[in-house]
Design goal:
mainly alpha, Rhopdopsin 7-helix transmembrane proteins, membrane, cell membrane, G-protein coupled receptor
Length: about 260
């Protein structure tokens, strides 16, 4: 059971890393378009691939963060409950289902992503939403499914984890295995915190845009800064994987203790 528990957080983190990699793969294409005034230079087929891949990261990260936080709650607060379900094979199945669910949720993006030709000759890869109502419903769909629905569940899990840990500290000192559980919990909490901090501005600005008829320059600056934050999280999280891992910390201590 202990061996299986060691691998469960790694499976979630590995899938998060894959989602971040997909996000980074799409970034050069979208950056090129924004740097050239919205001109898409890679053809229509690639447009219908890159844009959904970029959006898929938003669905996948939120989908994985939620059960990963629930797993931390079960490990810390209810360690002897549902142990027959918390296995490596079941965790792999859960993550496969999460990927399938993300692909289903991103299907509208595949449908509406296309190369749009404007009157001034500009060809841009974008969502072809025909009316303001379509834009409204799509924005609500994206923000609710990828942020505002998962966030309360994640928050509740960590409030319960924190409350339980405070109770245990007042009751008795933690053992070595429990220290390892707390280290993994802190790693997951750090990843969730990066996810929330880096994506919350983007979703808030998306909702604000629905109420703004003529956006000012400051709004556009805030919008692009929020996009940069969302991409930065995909670069920061791999560093956190390394810095917060037990192996890295042990090797770092070993190096600093070497006598020269």
């Amino acid at each position: 059971f202990r061996t299986q528990r060691k691998t469960i957080p790694d499976i979630y983190i590995c899938n998060l890393a894959i989602a971040d990699l997909i996000h980074i793969i799409a970034m050069p294409f979208l950056t090129h378009q924004r740097a050239h005034g919205g001109q898409w230079a890679f053809g229509s087929p690639l447009c219908t691939i890159i844009t959904p891949l970029d959006t898929c990261n938003q669905f996948t990260c939120s989908d994985i963060m939620t059960p990963m936080s629930l797993d931390r709650y079960l490990t810390l607060v209810q360690p002897f409950h549902l142990t027959h379900l918390r296995t490596r094979s079941n965790t792999i199945r859960v993550n496969l289902c999460l990927w399938v669910a993300s692909l289903i949720l991103v299907f509208p993006v595949w449908v509406y992503s296309k190369l749009i030709k404007f009157k001034d000759g500009l060809e841009s890869c974008a969502f072809d939403l025909t009316s303001p109502d379509d834009a409204l419903w799509y924005t609500l769909y994206l923000t609710l499914t990828t942020f505002f629905f998962p966030l309360p569940l994640i928050f509740i899990c960590y409030v319960l984890c924190y409350t339980w840990e405070m109770y245990q500290q007042n009751k008795q000192a933690g053992s070595i295995p429990r220290q390892r559980i707390m280290r993994l919990t802190k790693m997951v909490l750090a990843l969730v915190s990066v996810f929330v901090v880096s994506t919350a501005p983007f979703y808030v600005i998306q909702l604000m845009y629905l109420q703004v008829s003529q956006p000012a320059l400051t709004f556009y600056v805030s919008y692009y800064v929020s996009i940069c934050l969302s991409y930065a999280s995909s670069s920061i999280k791999p560093i956190l994987y390394i810095l917060l891992s037990g192996k890295f910390q042990k090797r770092l201590r070993r190096c600093t203790n070497v006598e020269v």
